[in-house]
Amino acid sequence: MAFVEVYPAVPTSRVSSSLLALPFDALEMIFHQLHPRDLVQLVRVSRNMNEIAIPFLYPTVHFHLPGHISATDALLSKLEAFSDQDFTLLRHTTRVLISGTWYHAYDEIESKLGLENVVSPAVRMLNTLITVCVSKMPNLRAFIWDSQIAPTQKLISMVALATRMEYLQLRVATDGSPTPYFHPTLKLGGFSKLRSLNIIDVKITSALQSVGNALYSSEQLSELAIWADEDVILSLDVIFSGWPGPRTLNLKSLDLRKFSNAGWSAPSLWQHISAACLRDLTLEVGSLLQPDDYNGFWEGAVAAGIRPTTLRTNLISEGLTNFIYSCNGLEVFLLTACLLPRPLPPISIFLETIISEHFKSLRVLAIHAQGPDESEYLLDRKLLASLSSRCTKLEELGFKILEQNQADVHLIFQLPLLRALHIDFAGDLNFDMQELSHLKLRKQVAECLSRMARHSLAYIAFDEGPVYAIQVNPVRWHVRSNMIWYIRDTVIFREKMFDWVSTIK
User: Fold this and answer.
1) What is the Rg, in whole angstroms, of the alpha carbon atoms belonging to the chain?
2) Which Gene3D superfamilies match (predicted)?
């Protein structure tokens, strides 16, 4: 991003005069669509245009760690400019992003200090400069830290002072090279106005305790996501154990992933969650959790009255079937990649419950499985035909099939509203076989679409991607994203935790 303040006025062009004549709402819409380079040109046009365009240059400040040392380091240039006491334009900033890879030349230093539980002076100085920048942002609403180095307590405390802070996302631990960098436990108190709290890569109990403190002091929190490191054993009970008294969280969205300890029993979790508010539930367990450990979990959710409209899970059991039966108007169901337990409910019974109970409301359905029993959860011709004829409101569909059954895919194009499609192939196909299967399927899909008078299909992906955007008349494919999870106007191709990536210009 260029660093722009006030430029000497130049004669106003006809274009700028036309822009200035527009209502502010229309100008705002136009400026939001412009690339920063275009905005830099606009602020040079005239003083009036400068005053209008400047705020649109700095709503998001992105500090990206480049990974290598360079004489023209954009990160350092930005920090030097923004931390200058005379630079006042950060008053327009509402969101801060920190991403990227720490300087590789410091790997050995960071790793050695990590073994001694010490944050390096270089990381601390980086945090200090960012802290200075944050102190100049009175309108800050969102702070996202997604890098393998640690944010310091001083920085997080400064972020907490932002009176309008609503969204906090922190990666609190990662694996560095050759050994993990040190991440001190952060005190997350003071974020009373938070609406969304997202904590990634939790490895230690003290980090969960800190999250618990933030939850207890929050007054308006509606979204909570905690992703644990699946290689460690952590219990969610730790979050609530330090609370000084009873408290119910009015969460609309709850996202818990990779926890592998049976200590997070249903009663200890659901007694702190308002069943009346919760609408979006994600529960993905780690590989260490045994089937016997979650037999009663879904029964506990049913007893607590949990009735989400969006459900994403890899915890499949008879109890899940009963839980789905108890829900009212399920709109989104995603069975994410999981190692299927034994015994497992047949896919036909599982799908029949979803179809019979929720065919009037179901908009998004994705069923994936992996491991030696994945063949038990593939969709065959009969199941695809049943879905296509009964779930006519489906807009997004994901499923796994055998390579030899791909001819059955044409059945799903009977869905009149289908706009996103994700197809996985079962088994371990080598690269050449996978590419050949993708080409065959692309040809088949193109033929199906060309025979249709009209269709709604906008996105399609095979296996891990890329995600293609579909254009019509004639049917054309172009890569929208090289990987899934980054298409924000979908469900099956979106991971909300990565939304910030698609906003970078």
Assistant:
1) 25
2) Ribonuclease Inhibitor
Best CA proximity match to 459, nearest among 398, 501, 504: 398
Taking every pair of Cα atoms in the chain, the longest distance, rounded to a whole number of angstroms, is: 77
Say if CB 13 and CB 45 are below 8 A apart.
Answer: yes
| Residue-wise burial string across 198-223, b where 16 or more C-beta atoms lie within 10 A, e elsewhere | bbbbbbbbebbbbbbbbbbebeebbb
Length of the chain equals: 505
H or E element at residue 198: strand 196-202
Binning pLDDT at 50, 70 and 90, where does residue 153 land? Answer: very high
Hey, which residues does 338 pair with through a beta bridge?
none
Q: Cβ distance 254 to 282 under 8 Å?
A: yes
Q: Which of 158, 144, 151, 228 is nearest to 182 (CA)?
A: 151
User: Under a CB-based contact definition with an 8 Å cutoff, are residues 328 and 358 in contact?
Assistant: no
Tokens of 471: 């254009």
Q: What does each C-alpha distance from 473 to 375, 399, 410, 420, 453 come to in angstroms? A: 37, 27, 19, 18, 11
Q: Phi/psi at 447 (nearest 5 deg)?
A: -65, -40
- Cα distance between residue 102 and residue 10, in whole Å: 42
- Predicted TM-score (pTM) of this structure: 0.90
Segments making up each domain of the chain, as ranges: 1-57
> To the nearest 10°, the Cα dihedral for 367, 370, 372, 375?
30
- CA 443, 445, 449, 452 dihedral sign is positive
Q: How many CA atoms lie within 13 A of 353 on its CB side?
A: 17
Q: What are phi and psi of 252, to 5 degrees?
A: -90, -30
pLDDT on residue 16? 56
